[in-house]
Amino acid sequence: MEIQQLKSLQTFLENPLQIAVIPHQNPDGDALGSCLAWAAFLTQKGHTVSVVSPNDYPDFLNWMPGQENIIRHTETTEKAETIIKEANLIFTLDFNDLVRIDELATAVAESTAPKIMIDHHQNPKNYADLTISYPNIGSTCELVYHLINNWQPTAIDSAIATCLYTGIMTDTGSFRFPTTTATTHRAIAHLMDCGAPHSNIHQNIHDSYTFDRVRLLGMGLTHLTQLDDIPAVYLSLSQEELNNCNYQKGDTEGFVNYGLRLKGIQLAVIMIENQKEGKIKMSFRSKGSFPAHTFAETFFKGGGHKNAAGGVSWDNLEETKDRLVSAIQHWKDRFE
Ligand SMILES: [Mn+2]
User: Fold this and answer.
1) Distance 244 CA to ligand 1 centre (A)
2) Containing domain of residue 165, as a range?
3) pLDDT tens sequence across 102-157
4) Cα distance between residue 117 and residue 97, in whole Å
5) Is residue 68 part of a domain?
6) Cα–ligand 1 centroid distance for 168 (angstroms)
């Protein structure tokens, strides 16, 4: 697949630069994978590159090649901001709106360095000097794969292949979401040729639950509720339940998908209480034409993709449930 902006991208990178590469807050496999692969490629090209993450990431990602050098803004704030200040080129990957990097946004907005967005979310904001946005591609990692493969396929070593494979795998739900194409599989085949250890990657991501995490999943599932005559389900976890299971960042990742395992269900929602921040974090997953992103945007200040979106509620858990149920009932004609 040809990426139209490759030539313009290359003109930014003609001379050795100090580069900062930034994933979104609470980075997932795609955000980290794309940043680490892109940073490794730029390093090969003779640039000095740092990956600066707005905050920490879950344990099931802390094996990825290169992650040991990631600077976390929440932990080493001054260092992170110095890197942004001194960078003469900034890449933002896997997001398209500076609100997604929280407090790091100020440093990025204040920097006079050119900014380049590489992303696959809809409706990119206009903050970058070069916007490489492909909402039809299933992951930023697949987009970065095409960029590198168009430019210099021989640069894809096993570290880059591993990072890209991971992000493509996680953002496509292990190659099963509708965004997975034959092109995706050709990219994956090539990445395996380049040394991506696919079995290890699957194990590291999916078979690395702690005992507490499985208990937490069990608690979430006991709350699984199906709406009357509407193909939608929701589940929830209270702060107390999270505490009881020694909640660690990333533990609830993927729980919402269990709702979609029910036959015929088109929308699954999870509500996770965060008492410290006084809010309920919400995730929406849909199948078919139900627009999870528009639903999240309309009712819960969120957004995302058609089949995977996030949102937030400032009401308590019970009120949020009630509001969710009415919102779904209000939109019941949108189901197939
Ligand atoms: Mn992504």
Assistant:
1) 31
2) 6-206
3) 999 999 999 999 999 999 998 999 999 999 999 999 999 999 999 999 999 999 99
4) 10
5) yes
6) 8
